[in-house]
């Protein structure tokens, strides 16, 4: 087999194939077959190479993939090649980044970031939940299955755990949603900032990264509560930040005020389920199927809650907790949400909002019967 020698990676460098004692030209091989991803190994030391002009020839008796790589960090050749290969096999798509915002109070806002391959922005759940679109990018190339990391700058600070970075996994023709909250750093200044989307996780050291996309956002004004919620707000006019939607608050009164800190384990469970239900949207039926609910049970939930996706989602989670008992854990829910590609909710489960009200959780179990 003959393979062309790759171009030199920089001026004044040599690849060592003309006699250097430690050649940087490495022959990699993968014997995985079919459509399986390659698993590379360095066979330079066990395969005699013949150099003819600007090509390399060698003999093989196996059916495999071969890669001639020029790498000056010889011990890291396989790991660097694997990293490059994984990126090269990702399918590129043209997508838009869209950001929605809704003010919870004058200094805190809920944000929803999307990376979408279609133009169905107007059909998102956020349009029904009184979110406002605050930014939209042009078409940008993103890679299927790759994570996109999000940083926030300016007068806005994300409400996350120390060291936690916001991440959004992109899959074509899916609702790639990332929900999180931001706080205004200086209330005396305009509530604006910049969201930066990156291919790699934020480095602790090293050169700054090139952003996939930068979006400048300005938070919308705080809206007054709707007329349907006006009676509830009469007694507590300053209450704004809630863990559950209006439909759930009417049914579970203790969800209306986080400061009241429910003491019962089941009350805390309901709060956590309300958080998940508020984000599930149309995905609740897909989640129900993965949780092995029958068509009849799914239709019953629809009939019982005909006008609210959030209430349907909440009822599904209640039934799941009641049915599975001690097996209804956060870990179990995370596994199923990952399976249906709702990594945005998985990120929410791992965030500080889910530590609410209980610091003695063991074995990943934050639900109860």
Automatic annotation (TrEMBL):
Its main location: membrane. Residues 269-353 form the Death domain. Pfam families: Death, UPA_2. One of its GO terms (cellular component) is membrane. GO terms for biological process: signal transduction. InterPro entries: Ank3_Death, Ankyrin_UPA, DEATH-like_dom_sf, Death_dom, Multifunctional_ANK_Repeat. It is found in: Membrane. Keywords: ANK repeat, Membrane, Repeat. PANTHER family: ANKYRIN 3 (PTHR24123:SF74), ANKYRIN REPEAT-CONTAINING (PTHR24123). This is ANK3. The lineage of its organism: Eukaryota, Metazoa, Chordata, Craniata, Vertebrata. The gene is ANK3.
